[in-house]
Amino acid sequence: MKQFRTFVKKEFFHIFRDKRTMMILLGIPVIEIILFGFAISTEVRNVRVAVLDPSGDVITRKIIDRIDASEYFILTTKLHTPQEVEQAFRRGEIDLAVVFSHRFLDNLYTGDAKIQLIADATDPNMAVTQSGYASGIISAAQQELLPAGASPATIVPDVRLLYNPQMKSAYNFVPGVMGLILMLICAMMTSISIVREKEIGTMEVLLVSPMKPLLIILSKAVPYFVLSFVNLSSILLLSVYVLHVPIAGSLLALVSVSLLFIFVSLSLGLLISTITQTQIAAMLVSGLMLMMPTMLLSGMIFPVDGMPTILQVISTIIPARWYIDVVRKIMIEGVSITFVAKEIGILALMAFVLIAVSLKKFKTRLE
């Protein structure tokens, strides 16, 4: 029994000396419970609402105030023409639009007063939930604001679902799956490239070659970049012809942004390759450490706007979040590339930073 206790004690010492193992054993459960507890939420929060109110009477203003006072909605802008509604959706400024008919108060008692709710159905489940919450507030407000004894016709808001009127779930998960697959495959493929050279003893050949460190790093990414383009082509073909998700926008713009995202993912894999010591460690970091944040914090499954502020801030450093936004806007909404300039700029900046940091780490190894 004494020998057994000695061996157990020895194993504890081995584990305590390995800081990375300690981080995995004690840190991952904490991170997981926080992410799953706060990121996984089907509640409606921070829904950005625009209002088109041509009548501007006392009833419509009070209904708008009720919506704005709700904990679920944030009134961001007031529109003046129906054309501005679709433009606001295309720019990604709003999630829901409330449209009142002309002379709303005058037509309230005749049954001609109308309210239309327009929701972005690229996420069909969330669009239905948002419309349901807004309909409930409108119905409650109507009963509260009318004079005692009045019995006007009940207003049932007309719900219009933009971009996905058939409520196909594939419209929602295809962009997210594209981001997840390309991120994981590209990062995992390149994460072992430099580490493998060190493990098999060929790193010395690279060190004495006349190639500059930047070109060595980029040469590692080029073959995987070509293979990733093949993966992208197969994903798009399956999405269109098997899942029947049309490409509403420019195919060239979609492919161009996808190639940029592939380069960002490859650059992230190269960075992992320069800071890890073994192929197993590189695979674990690129697989486990990237999969969960990408699934939970990129907007792939759960809307980012419904997360706590700290998680929203963390999500900004996840490349897949910006790529998924671009795919939804170009592929599903059919917007031009000018409407996704912000996302493209962020991805380009990430690519530059990742390559620069990888180069710095690689130079440190050369010394």
Tags for this entry?
367 residues; alpha/beta; 2 domains; 14 helices
Description:
By secondary structure, the chain is an alpha/beta fold. The protein folds into two domains: 47-162, abc type-2 transporter like fold; 168-366, no CATH class. Helix content is 64%, strand content 8%. The protein is built from 14 helices and five strands. α3 links the parallel β1 and β2. The longest helix has 29 residues, at 213-241. The chain is elongated, with a radius of gyration of 26 Å. The two termini are 49 Å apart.
Summarize the structure.
The protein is α/β, with parallel strands linked by helices.
Write the layout of secondary structure elements.
Layout: H1 2-17, H2 19-38, E1 47-52, H3 58-69, E2 73-79, H4 82-90, E3 96-100, E4 115-120, H5 124-145, E5 158-162, H6 170-191, H7 193-199, H8 203-208, H9 213-241, H10 251-275, H11 279-297, H12 309-315, H13 319-333, H14 341-366
Parallel strand pairs: 1-2, 1-3, 4-5
Antiparallel strand pairs: 3-4
Helix pairs in contact: 3-5, 6-9, 6-10, 6-11, 6-13, 9-10, 10-13, 10-14, 13-14
- In percent terms, what proportion of residues is strand? 5-15%
Please compute the radius of gyration using only Cα atoms. 26 Å
- Overall tally of domains: 2
What share of the residues lie within helices? 55-70%
- The largest sheet has its strands arranged as 2-1-3-4-5
What is the string of SSEs from the N terminus onward? HHEHEHEEHEHHHHHHHHH
- Report the major sheet: 5 strands, mixed
Low-confidence stretches: none
Q: How many separate helices?
A: 14
Please state the average pLDDT score. Answer: 79
Strand elements, count:
5
